[in-house]
């Protein structure tokens, strides 16, 4: 278990040091926002369908 925690911490530390150019960062943020908006819309549609039936 200790070894797994150590490997996880090492992986997180390594990942946090990866440099991304601003364009990639912006694309990822936009992708995340779009994904979140789609999920919210699907949830709203689901609630409306449940309420109308």
Automatic annotation (TrEMBL):
Its main location: endoplasmic reticulum. Keywords: Acetylation, Endoplasmic reticulum, Membrane, Mitochondrion, Phosphoprotein, Sarcoplasmic reticulum, Transmembrane, Transmembrane helix. GO terms for biological process: negative regulation of calcium ion import into sarcoplasmic reticulum; negative regulation of heart rate. The keyword rRNA processing does not apply. It is found in: Endoplasmic reticulum membrane; Mitochondrion membrane; Sarcoplasmic reticulum membrane. Coiled coil: none annotated. It is a single-pass membrane protein. GO terms for molecular function: ATPase inhibitor activity. One of its GO terms (cellular component) is mitochondrial membrane. Gene3D superfamilies: Phospholamban. The chain crosses the membrane at residues 31-51. It holds the Pfam family Phospholamban. Belongs to the phospholamban family. PANTHER family: CARDIAC PHOSPHOLAMBAN (PTHR21194:SF1). This is Phospholamban. The gene is LOC115546517.
């Amino acid at each position: 278990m200790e070894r797994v925690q150590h490997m996880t911490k090492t992986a997180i530390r390594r990942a946090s040091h990866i440099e991304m150019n601003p364009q990639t960062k912006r694309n990822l943020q936009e992708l995340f926002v779009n994904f979140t908006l789609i999920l919210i819309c699907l949830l709203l549609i689901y609630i409306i369908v449940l309420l109308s039936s």
